[in-house]
Amino acid sequence: MEKLIVSSSPHFHGKKTTQSIMLDVIIGLSPAMIASVVIFGFRAAVVILTCVASCVLSEYLCRRVMKRPQTVGDLSCVVTGVLLALNLPVTIHPLIAAFGSVVAIVVVKQMFGGIGQNFVNPALTARIVLMNSFPARMTHWTAAFDYSATADAVTTATPLASFAANADGTYVPDYLEMFLGAHGGCLGETCALAILLGGIYLIARRVISPVIPLTYLGTVAVLSLLLGRDPLFDLLAGGLMLGAFFMATDYTTSPLYFWGRVVFAVGCGILTIIIREFGSLPEGVSYSIVLMNILTPLIERWIRPRAFGLEKQKRKGELEG
Amino acid sequence: MEFPKSPYRTHGGAPVPHHKGTAHSASVVMPVPMQVTLPMQQHIGAPCIPTVKKGDHVYLGQIIGDSEAYVSAPVHASVSGTVAEIKEVMLTGGQMTQAVVIDSDGKMEVDPEIHPPKAIHTKEELASAARAAGLVGLGGAGFPAHVKLNVPEGKNIDTLIVNVAECEPYVTSDHREALENGKNVLDGIYKVKEILDVHRVLIAIEDNKPDVIEKLKEIADNPEMDPEDEVRVLPLRSRYPQGAEKVLVQACTGRKVPPGKLPADVGCLVMNIASISFLASYMRTGMPLTLKRVTIDGSAVRNPQNVIVPIGTKIADIIEFCGGYQSEPQKLLMGGPMMGVAITSDQLPILKQNNAILAFDEKEAALMEPTACIRCGNCVKACPMNLMPTRLEKAVEKKDLEALTQYHVTTCMECGCCAFSCPAGRRLVQAIRLGKSYLKRAAAKKA
User: Fold this and answer.
1) Beta B291-297 vs B356-360: how paired, if at all?
2) Are B133 and B288 in contact, with CB atoms under 8 Å apart?
3) Which numeric CATH code is attached to A18-302?
């Protein structure tokens, strides 16, 4: 009994760790990964592996160069890699994918201090950088089940692009096809079913709260209806599902508190619809989430939980009992 | 007055494991120890001054330390014997206090002066009886009971809440008190209720103790004892920290005690079951507080059980009585794992307000290495006081006193839900304690 550990209470700790949470997110993303390989073929797996490998390597080297404790083990860089891959078209050149990974990890994440410190979502920001650097390659879509999938493959339009091109309302979407993901688009965004499965897993495991996805999707549906668009189409099209469940719920860049999260998600929904309806881009999920990421510190300044006992007394007579 | 059928909603909390392994075995009375050490500060408030000197003979139950101060509670000899010395001891918080060391003669001769107190009818009489008995809040805080019972004029108490929540893992001393002394508990309740003229008594028990709920219900629902049916059992959700005073008041009445206020400000009086049961025995016998039931448990203890010991018994002696350590202890706790204090040695004595001693082996004592905050929001979700622990931690790092005040650091009751829930293993409670001391120091400087 020479040495007893003396530490501040509590002396118990829950089972969740950063690593277990990130592992859960990877498990939650796996239906979408599997779906992408089924829909777009072997090349999808190559894109995912390229992104994950380059994210892990960038994080490892970055921490070494900066002489900081190694954080590869927390698996957050793997999550970033998978998310970035799921936001790329299958025909993307591996070097471009790797470049995106370096941008996500080195520029967006590590330069701001690493995990928990970045002010925008690394994967989304990397996607935006790639969109602006390689616009043609980033919008080169192949049809589902066209496994030849080279850069020369016949291109197809995404549902959103078709919708935008046929603003007269002649485009009739096939909802079942959209739900199952059998259409052109980024790796992980096409199959709503797979994303829903992963999202439900994360909610059930209490890794994410349903507040942001539900509010985001709800806002989009309502606004879509109000603007005379097709709400079901808007929900299933583009990166909305993936964004709502896996990007907007990113811990670091979304508010901590329930009502802050509601405001954040409503903002995401409004921006998405504004971009889709009025913007020159067919898709606005990345930009709307990143914009709301930037607003997160302001939202947190504005909306805070009221400390216990300081709430507005709703029923004043209650105390007299 | 209306009685709630189910508890009111409370915010946050954490799914801490229960580990109530000692709940189903009867408490064991420990043989009289060779020596007891009785610190003069076993309560919140002014320390006592020894009223005996080295070599004096003392009886069991004799006053050996007292104070003129209002917020203080006298200390009584817990064995009969001779005063071996009066020395300085260090308390768990690091502060020094005097302590009376008594060598026991093994006879446990009761002070002949002790006789049952006169019948108590008023609030003032009850308060002075509680003081004479040396009673402090036995739930862990150690706040002198007479101060709490002497509710200031103008504060109308309509509800007495008896705290049997016992939400801390491992601890089962209240559980055993209820099972072994249920009748006594109800006795105490009826007395206090009558004296304070309270017409609603809620016995609050976490629903992970169905045997306690059944037992106390049986007595409380007996129309012979409680013709007006003003004492009822309220099963609470088993979610830590249901037993924390403010959370308990909210769960029982839906009322919220504002920061810096007491339950009396919202018409409630909260008493721990052991305190109220003790009051009943005191009124019957006049025997002051000298015995305490403590849960001895944890991975390093061979025979975990509840032991009734004289206050002042050395922890090492009690552990020895429980079969000793079965593995090298790495951490010793006074109290439960969520709010208990890690102590430096098993040579310290049991204090009045102790309800458990836990000894952890290497695996159980291991601390998680803190990593960066990932802003998951789990601490915010877990906080029963609706605070933002991670925000407070950042304010502490920057010594940002303004932010500490703005984010209500002083409202924190240090229940530990945030740190328990933090996936990054941040030492949130430790940071918050530091933050509170920053504010205290700044206030002292200003004054």
Assistant:
1) parallel
2) yes
3) 1.10.3430
B349 Cβ contact list (under 8 Å, min separation 6) = B36, B37, B38, B39, B89, B99, B311, B312, B313, B314, B315
Number of Cα atoms under 13 Å in the Cβ half of residue A195: 29
Binding-face residues of B in 236-255 toward A, CB within 8 A: 246, 253-255
Amino acid letter for position B326 = Q
A2 touches chain B (CB under 8 A): no
Q: Return the closest-CA partner of residue A24 out of A187, A198, A263.
A: A198
> Measured between CB atoms, does A249 come within 8 Å of chain B?
no
Contact indicator for B192, B150 with CB cutoff of 8 Å:
no
Per-residue model confidence as pLDDT tens digits over B65-85: 999 999 999 999 999 999 999
Structure tokens at A233: 């189409």
CA distances from B424 to B15, B75, B93, B376 (A): 17, 44, 27, 9
Using the Cβ of B169 and the Cβ atoms of chain A, whether some distance falls under 8 Å is answered with yes
Of B331, B422, B425, the CB nearest to A4: B331
Taking only the tens place, the pLDDT of each residue in B278-324 is: 999 999 999 999 999 999 999 999 999 999 999 999 999 999 999 99
- Confidence at residue A178, expressed as pLDDT on a 0 to 100 scale: 85
CA A133 to chain centre: 21
Confidence band (pLDDT; 50, 70, 90) for A318?
A: very low
CA quadruple A91, A94, A99, A103: dihedral sign: positive
Query: Per the omega criterion (within 30 degrees of 0), is the bond before A89 cis?
Result: no
B-chain CB neighbours of A306 within 8 Å are 386
Q: Which CATH architecture has domain B123-285?
A: 3-Layer(aba) Sandwich (3.40)
Q: How far apart, in whole angstroms, are the C-alpha atoms of residue A17 and residue B444?
A: 39
Those of residues 377-436 in B touching chain A at CB distance below 8 A are: 377-378, 380-381, 384-388, 390-391, 407-408, 411, 414, 416, 419-425, 427, 429-430, 433
Span B98-111, mean pLDDT?
93
* CA pair distance B269, B249, nearest whole angstrom: 9
Which residue does chain B place closest to A5, by CA atoms? B331
Report the distance separating Cα A190 and Cα A184, nearest Å. Answer: 7
What is B196-240 written as a DSSP string?
A: HT---EEEEEETT-HHHHHHHHHHHT-TTT-TT--EEEEEE---B
Give, for A296, the enclosing helix (H) or strand (E).
helix A285-302
CB distance B363 to B53 below 8 Å: no
- Would you list the domain boundaries of chain A? 18-302
Q: How many CB atoms are closer than 10 A to CB B398?
A: 9
Which string of b and e fits B87-116 if b means at least 16 CB within 10 Å? eebebbeeeeebbbbbebeeebbbbeebee
Within chain B, all domains assigned CATH 3.40.50.11540 are found at 123-285
Q: Compare all CA atoms of chain B with the CA of A207 and give the residue at the minimum distance.
A: B376
What is the average per-residue pLDDT within B334-362? 93
Query: pLDDT > 70: what percent of chain A?
Result: 92
What pTM, to 2 d.p., does this model score? 0.92
Which residues of chain B have a CB within 8 Å of the CB of A17?
368, 423-425
Integer Cα distance of A199 and A207 in angstroms: 10
